[in-house]
Write a structure and sequence with these properties.
The protein has a single domain (2-209), classed as NAD(P)-binding Rossmann-like Domain (Rossmann fold). The strands form 2 sheets. An 8-stranded mixed β-sheet has the order 3-2-1-4-5-6-10-8, with helices on both faces. The protein is α/β, with parallel strands linked by helices. It contains 6 helices and 10 strands; from the N terminus they run βαββαβαβααββββαβ. α1 links the parallel β1 and β2. Helices cover 37% and strands 23% of the residues.
């Protein structure tokens, strides 16, 4: 596949780039600071651009099989990074005539599938602590769902820096019960598989350690 990755220097994005290259895919990494990009290879193209640079982003997504937005907040301050990312990606996809978009949000802002204690005790506390990031993700999901592209929203739980395990549970009916974390490497694994899975088009998928 030919893939474009937004947020390619972040925790999930860098894993997507690394695993995609290892699997033989061609990757276009959109970054602001290329010095933070650790991957390299002949199948890697680097585009230095901000989310407001529509022309550069349009060129970066043109002719690609999928665009993966792995953007996320780096702190607890007010943020619109995920929302800005999906707006920029959708505008670029529209100009390029491309259609496939995968967006990483989180299971944290949502309670479908959660047991009683998680729904009524853990999530309200978590929602106060991470309210800005969660509000950004909820708004981004709303924008994606209103679009006419072939989107998939992927909601992982708490992210860890452990190794790639390949043990991933997924649900389109709500959060994965009884599993509250997932390694970033496994999120990347799922995204790459989901990119070519037409059954996941216009689906929201919660994932967690299986």
């Amino acid at each position: 596949m030919k893939l474009t990755v937004l947020g390619a220097t972040g925790g999930v994005g860098s894993e997507v780039v690394k695993q995609a290259l290892a699997a033989g895919h061609h990757v276009t990494a959109v970054v602001r600071d290329p010095s933070r990009l650790t991957a390299e290879g002949e199948r890697l193209d680097v585009v230095v651009a901000g989310l407001s640079e529509h022309g550069a982003l349009t060129e970066a997504v043109s002719g690609r099989d999928a665009v993966i937005s792995a953007l996320g907040a780096r702190d607890r301050n007010p943020t619109t990074v995920v929302t800005d990312g999906v707006r920029a990606a959708l505008a670029a996809l529209g100009s390029a005539g491309s259609r496939r978009l995968l967006v990483v949000t989180a299971s944290g802002p949502f309670v479908d599938g959660d047991p009683f204690f998680t729904r009524n005790v853990v999530k309200p506390i978590l929602g106060r602590i991470l309210r800005h990031a969660f509000a950004d993700m909820v708004a981004a999901e709303r924008i994606v769902r209103a679009s006419d592209v072939d989107w998939t929203i992927v909601r992982p739980p708490r992210l860890l820096n452990g190794p790639h395990t390949g043990v991933i549970a997924a649900s389109t009916e709500g959060n994965v019960p009884g599993s509250y974390s997932l390694n970033r490497a496994d999120v990347a694994d799922y995204l790459l598989r989901a990119a070519s899975d037409d059954s996941l088009i216009r689906q929201t998928v919660a994932i967690a350690h299986g």
